[in-house]
Amino acid sequence: MATACVAAAWVFLAAPAPAQDVPAELERLTGSWTSAATPEEAQAIIGSAIDATVAEMFFLKRPFARRKLQNIAVACSALDIAAEGTRVSVTCDERPPVVDELDGGTTDYRTEGETFQAAHAWDDGRLVQAIGNRDGVRRNVYDLSEDGNTLTLQVSISSDRLPKAVTWTREFRRAAGGGAPTTVAP
Questions:
Q1: Once rounded to an integer, what is the mean pLDDT over residues 95-121?
Q2: What digits encode the pLDDT tens for the residues 103-113?
Q3: Strand 98-101 to 106-111 pairing
Q4: Cβ count within 10 A of residue 13
Q5: Is residue 91 predicted with pLDDT exceeding 70?
Q6: CA–CA separation, 81 vs 29, rounded Å?
Q7: Contacts of 142 (CB under 8 A, 6+ apart)
């Protein structure tokens, strides 16, 4: 059942387009970004989103679901986005970067002892990232403001085990000297 959720989540990235150079719009998104919210505010935003979802679950399952969601609902204080050729790299704080071709195809991503499938796609002026395994999918949508100084991150975590997706939105500001990282990690 959870496998069906993961498979369905990849549909928006299915049938990858031929690899092409990074769109000029994406180049504007590259660089270093810092959270507009304090760590406490960011955790409160995410905590409220988790609570809204687990509140609909059977009371004995709530603490287990809450703990699992808190482990994957990371409140990044900094993001680094790099793009080179047909490759994109997104790094949250000091975690390993998620690196993939910008064609919707998947690649293995390993962090904290678990292996996930990761994919990036460019969709209507936004960078879409999906990271998932048999338990569910986290979908991150990165959207740049017209002035290029605010990055909005919309997150959705879905699983067959949840009554509804956990969703939240965060904003990031271009870091001082926030030029683009020069290379995409291998």
A1: 87
A2: 878 888 888 77
A3: unpaired
A4: 19
A5: yes
A6: 7
A7: 29, 81, 90, 126, 127, 128, 129, 151, 152, 153
pLDDT, mean of residues 13-23: 49
Q: What is the pLDDT of residue 74?
A: 85
Q: Print the SS3 string covering the chain.
A: CHHHHHHHHHHHHCCCCCCCCCCHHHHHHCEEEEECCCHHHHHHHHHHHHHHHHCCCCCCCHHHHHHHHHHHCCCCCEEEEEEECCEEEEEECCCCCEEEECCCCEEEEEECCEEEEEEEEEECCEEEEEEEECCEEEEEEEEECCCCCEEEEEEEEECCCCCCCEEEEEEEEECCCCCCCCCCCC
Structure tokens at 98: 């998620």
What Rg, from alpha-carbon coordinates, does the chain have?
16
